Amino acid sequence: MATIGVQMMMLRSKVEQAGPYETLRRLTEIGFRAVEVSQIPMTPENVAQMRRARDDLGVDFGALSAAVQAPEGAPNDSLTSHFDKVVGDARTLGADMVRIGMMPFEAMASYDELLRFCRQADEIAARLADAGIGLYYHNHHIEFAKVAGVQVLDIIREQAPNLRLEIDVHWVQRGGRDPVRTLQKYAGLVDLVHLKDYRIGPMDPAAFDALRAGDVAAFMSAFTGIVQFAEVGEGTLDWPEIIDTAIAAGAKYLFIEQDDQYGRDPFDCLVTSRENLVAAGYEALL
Predict the structure, then answer these.
(1) CA 240 to chain centre
(2) Which of 122, 162, 191, 217 has a Cα at 20 to 30 A from 56?
(3) Contacts of 207 by beta carbon, 8 Å cutoff, 6+ apart
(4) 77-78 and 97-100: which strand pairing?
(5) Cβ proximity of 266 and 26 under 8 Å
(6) Residues 83, 127: contact at Cβ < 8 Å?
């Protein structure tokens, strides 16, 4: 059975304040038992606290995050420079999935760099597979652009056949594609899914001040920038169809993520998402 959990990126400020163990304890109190770790420094101290949360609280570490290459000080480890550490952390926490959160910026600007990233990721995916760990690529919207008539996500699939997918349904929608059809298209490759709603937010009142002042460009910038990240069930996505399709496509974990909480406490946002999922009939997956 699939499990609905939480992407810890949205709790990174809580981890900075109270540490991983206390943050995870609070998360279990509000009704979540599975997490995906991203943008949390994987220091020995933090990993030890996460392991303690696994042992004491029963936290399920569904997936960890890493980059193919990452500069020093980046929040996620580098699979090129710290391969053995990533494998060791995964084994310590009982995770058998590692995900790449984004392609390198250089790969967004150059087809040759995109192919280079694909080759590197594919080689690392094969090495991780030998260690019993799957490697997954997480999409944003840019992967739905086309290069020479081919969608970037399909180029990644073709050029990195050992790499599996983590589909983020908000970014699929923002990329102009249908989340349900996208999950169906990649069925069998999608073990990880991000549940993130897509909300049309209010116009900033300052935009109307700009319009009255004759600054049409500022008004139009605000007009085209009202898409928000939302709590699950608070936006426009059809969650029963998306979740049922994700499970049918083979998803093992569905992680709630909200990149920006717009001033709300992230725990409060997660409570809202959970309540909406329970109301929709998915309590058994939590």
Answers:
(1) 19
(2) 191
(3) 218, 219, 221, 222, 223
(4) unpaired
(5) no
(6) yes
Distance, in Å, from the CA atom of 58 to the CA atom of 108, rounded to the nearest integer, reads: 39
- Residue among 170, 254, 236 nearest 199 (CA): 236
> Considering the entire predicted model, what is its pTM?
0.97
CB within 8 A of 267, min separation 6: which ones?
Answer: 11, 14, 26, 27, 30
* The pLDDT of residue 75 is above 90: no
How far apart CA 248 and CA 181 sit, in angstroms, is 12
pLDDT reported for residue 116: 97
Q: Is the dihedral of CA 44, 12, 64, 74 positive or negative?
A: negative
> 134 — phi, psi (to 5°)?
-90, 150
- Lookup: tokens for 16: 């900075």
Return the CATH fold of 3-196+232-285. Answer: TIM Barrel (3.20.20)
CB 219 within 8 A of CB 281: no
pLDDT in tens, 219-244: 999 999 999 999 999 999 999 999 99
| Rg of the chain taking only CA atoms, in angstroms | 19
Spell out a b/e string for 77-110, using b for 16 or more CB atoms within 10 Å of the CB, else e: bbbeebbebbbebbebbebbbbbbbbbbeebbee
Listed by start position, the domains of the chain span 3-196+232-285, 201-228
Report long-range pairs for 125-134 (Cβ below 8 Å, ≥24 apart): 125/160, 125/162, 125/163, 125/164, 126/162, 127/83, 128/79, 128/87, 128/98, 129/162, 131/87, 132/96, 133/87, 133/90, 133/95, 133/96, 133/97, 133/98, 134/96, 134/97, 134/98, 134/164, 134/191
Residue 29 and residue 230: Cα distance in Å, rounded?
22
